[in-house]
Amino acid sequence: MSVIKIDIIGAPTAFGQPKLGVSLGPDAVRLCGLKARLTALGHEVSDKGNVYGKYRAEYGNHSERNEEGLMNFVQVKDFSEVLANTVEASLNDKHFPFIVGGDHSLSIGSISGITKKYSNLGVLWIDAHGDINNSDTSPTGNIHGMPLGVLLGEGSRRLVDIHHEGAKLKHENIVLIGVRDLDTGEKAYIKEHGIKCYTMSDVKRLGLDAVITKALKHLESCDGIHLSLDVDSLDPLEIQGTGTKVDGGIFLSDMLSGLNILSSTKRLVSADLVEVNPLIDNCNETAEKAVILSEYIFGQSQI
Questions:
Q1: Number of neighbouring beta carbons within 10 Å of residue 105
Q2: Could you give the count of Cα atoms lying within 13 Å of 225 in the half-sphere of its Cβ?
Q3: Cα-flanking dihedrals φ and ψ of residue 139, to 5°?
Q4: Distance in angstroms (rounded) separating the CA atoms of residues 25 and 8
Q5: Class assignment of domain 5-297?
Q6: Residue 161 to residues 35, 142, 190, 272: CA-CA distances in angstroms?
Q7: CA nearest to 112, candidates 15, 26, 11
Q8: Closest by alpha carbon to 118, among 164, 171, 168, 161?
Q9: Which tens digit of pLDDT belongs to each residue from 205-250?
Q10: Which of 53, 59, 72, 208 gives 20 to 30 Å between its CA and that of 22?
């Protein structure tokens, strides 16, 4: 296994959704030994600490709706800009940025930073949700349900143009995996733009290993692959500490096998691990499983 220079970047944002505890996710995962266990795999690991913008999520400043109906817009935009700069700097050092969240709105910032270096980036979006809403289609206004839409150039231009102008991703360079809770507008958008989407029905029918293999084939022309892994993609029987659980998800053993296939391709250039919320967890079990997922992203195997 080749040595990877990993930068752990904590992204403790909670502004993209309504539950404050997700801002504690990066430190909860650290407490379970993230750096030590990635180092034990033979990698060079540097913990860059947590990224902070001008605002901190706390009781009383976490429900501000702007004129477009978007929740905490200013805070999400600010955090995304700071995170994008941090991620781009990691890539400039020829390191692998591993962003630990925090809610999924952080991917606006992380992928905006990555696409300054990779102009034809492929994305594996493993999630119970599509996260491809905009201000018109979102039933809540929560921006953690919109990062893919923003990155594809939809919705508020002030979010779309973060870090560098325009859409950051191409429709044909995205593969959704494990989705099972899509809003009506998301379903229409996915069909209209021909986005590759493997629902949980597909995963159960084909097997996650086969789905990951097909996804990699679909993205073979990309100049790098980013993994965005939401822990709510796992079945709630396995994961308690996340804010938007949906029944009928991926089981941990299957996920580890699929990640093993992904890591063995050596095409990953960056990754997000998001939506760990220790305040609604059971004895930090979700953070512990997040560390196990991280090990498999970086080359751990079952034998």
A1: 32
A2: 23
A3: -80, -10
A4: 13
A5: alpha beta
A6: 33, 19, 22, 20
A7: 11
A8: 168
A9: 999 999 999 999 999 999 999 999 999 999 999 999 999 999 999 9
A10: 208
- Cα 159 from Cα 154, distance rounded (Å): 9
Contacts of 203 (CB under 8 A, 6+ apart): 177, 178, 211, 250
**Is residue 112 within 8 Å of residue 164, measured between CB atoms?**
yes
pTM: 0.95
pLDDT digits (tens, 9 = 90+) for 81-121: 999 999 999 999 999 999 999 999 999 999 999 999 999 99
List residues bridging with 221 in a β-sheet: none
56-73 average pLDDT score: 69
> Could you report the per-residue pLDDT of 117-148, keeping only the tens digit for each?
999 999 999 999 999 988 777 888 788 888 99
Q: Give 54's DSSP letter.
A: S
Which active-site residues does the annotation give? Answer: 104, 127, 129, 131, 144, 230, 232, 275
Residue 137 confidence (pLDDT):
79
Tell me how far apart the alpha carbons of residues 126 and 227 are, in angstroms, rounded to a whole number. Answer: 8
Nearest Cα to Cα of residue 83 among 48, 57, 59: 48
Record the tokens describing residue 117, joined without a space: 């270096």
The amino acid present at 19, given as its one-letter code, is: K
Block residue for tokens 């696409």: 115
Domain map of the chain by residue range? 5-297
Residue 247, C-beta contacts closer than 8 angstroms, at least 6 positions apart: 235, 236
CB atoms within 10 A of CB 221: 9
Token pair 């990779």 is found at 118
**For 98, phi and psi rounded to 5 degrees?**
-115, 105
Per the CB < 8 A criterion, the answer to whether 112 and 151 are in contact is yes
Number of Cβ within 10 Å of residue 214's Cβ equals 16
State phi, psi for 268 to the nearest 5 degrees: -70, 135
